[in-house]
């Protein structure tokens, strides 16, 4: 017997990962609602995105994180709330927690805006540490209020990190073909996932009792790679050796505070991920976490190798 799928509200659905979560929710058969600010509707790109949501059967609700009444009203429609808000809105998620409590509706699950590194097990410094501290503060508020939760840790987005070989100082949209910067010695292992796969695993987790009040790590074995691994794989695909510049940890730590925003944050993330091994240094213990590709082996994820092939 199949259980009825939860009704899902996505807050922050017109953002980078948000659009994949909204689409993934609708396509996987969940009745899906997206809370959208009126200002987003007048933005041509976001307006087009919202129309795409509607075409998929998503119900658009007007509202704002700063408008408690609109949050409470939106939450009345659903069983699960997923937040995908960006950096500037992270602390406004405290309003979502408050609205969940105030709504009087028993929300089965809240997924706060995580979708990156595990902020409770991080080696990050500088602006990356500041961002992670805010996410950790939201976690503590969720737990203190007794709101049922799942924290989704997808590590790196392929579109940000793999499509550029982690060249955050350039505006690349495809991997470089001449030269590449390697952070540290290039051997720290990171985890790189395609955005549609992140949405697919998230949708499987929302109604799974095994993920309730747990952290879900999306760590598919073929996607655990170092920067050197990725560069070598790309070189083999294009039949060419790239000119490599190595940036030591000491140089990188000097560069972060000297860089304008958001480059300082991107460099700090690269330091955490590709120098310190922030995503792979710890063991997932059953007491706090589960691994998505083990829970859902039927999800056909895109490997790093397959993802890079599109650029050849």
Q: How many separate helices?
A: 13
Describe the main β-sheet briefly: 5 strands, parallel
- Helix amount: 40-55%
Q: How large, in whole angstroms, is the Cα Rg?
A: 20 Å
Name the strands of the widest sheet in spatial order: 3-2-1-4-5
Strand content: 15-25%
Identify the notable features of this structure and list them briefly.
312 residues, alpha/beta, 5-stranded parallel beta sheet, 3-stranded parallel beta sheet, 13 helices, globular
Task: Please write out the topology.
Elements: E1 8-11, H1 18-27, E2 32-36, H2 38-42, H3 44-55, E3 59-62, H4 68-75, E4 80-83, H5 93-103, E5 109-111, H6 126-144, E6 150-153, E7 156-157, H7 158-162, E8 179-183, E9 189-193, H8 195-206, E10 214-217, E11 224-226, H9 227-238, E12 243-247, H10 249-258, H11 263-275, E13 289-291, H12 292-295, H13 304-309
Parallel strand pairs: 1-2, 1-4, 2-3, 4-5, 6-10, 7-9, 8-12, 10-13
Antiparallel strand pairs: 9-11
Helix pairs in contact: 1-8, 4-5, 6-11, 10-11
